[in-house]
Write a structure and sequence with these properties.
With 167 residues, this protein is α/β, with parallel strands linked by helices. The chain has 4 helices and 7 strands. 34% of the residues lie in helices and 22% in strands. α4 links the parallel β4 and β5. α3 runs parallel beside α4. The chain binds S-adenosylmethionine.
């Protein structure tokens, strides 16, 4: 498979996962967290799918904003800084309320990815609402959450979906 084929498959998988997750919270308003703004592609997609910002306010976490100018969140929806500083604060702000997290935070450094995923798993867990969904490019070990199947056609391991247990 060429690198182009692989990039296309990755983006198609990402879109399929985001669409499935947005459909799943259709009757479930609450805060949505986007971890890793990047160039803003997936933030823009979430905004387009979750059209009512009062029902699904999207909070973005990023250490350095460098997105397309149309895809920059408002200041009061941006947690600017390293996840190690911002996620614990957000977990306090949204304790037990978050209905969807999308984490797209990987780099080419597998060891660093694993360390970050371990931190994010622990830091995010208290923010999740019962039944809240977490979609991640990295394997997470989320306390109190179970792994859920990916949409049809998305290869196992390409993305990872978790759901917080109902208490
Ligand atoms: N989903 C995005 C898109 O569609 O454009 C791409 C996200 S990009 C792969 C990952 C982003 O996560 C980068 O912008 C990077 O700066 C951010 N990031 C990675 N580790 C971070 C950390 N520890 N704290 C804050 N931001 C981080």
């Amino acid at each position: 498979m060429s690198r182009l084929d692989s990039a296309i498959r990755r983006l198609e998988a990402q879109r399929a996962c985001l669409d499935q997750a947005c459909a799943a919270i259709d009757r479930r308003p609450g805060p949505v967290l986007e971890l890793g703004l990047g160039n803003g592609r997936t933030y823009d997609h979430l905004r387009e799918r979750l059209t009512d910002p009062d029902r699904w306010p999207i909070y973005v976490f990023e250490r350095k904003v460098a997105a397309h100018p149309d895809c920059i969140p408002p200041d009061d929806r941006l947690y600017l800084g390293d996840f190690h500083d911002t996620l614990p604060r957000a977990a306090e702000d949204f304790r037990g309320q978050v209905v969807l997290v999308h984490a797209d935070m990987g780099s080419g450094d597998e060891a660093a990815n694993a360390r970050l995923a371990a931190f994010v798993s622990q830091a995010l867990a208290p923010a999740l609402a019962p039944g809240g969904l977490v979609l991640s490019d990295q394997v997470l070990r989320l306390p109190g959450a179970e792994r859920r199947p990916l949409p049809d056609g998305v290869a196992e391991g390409r993305y990872h979906l978790y759901r917080a247990l109902e208490q």
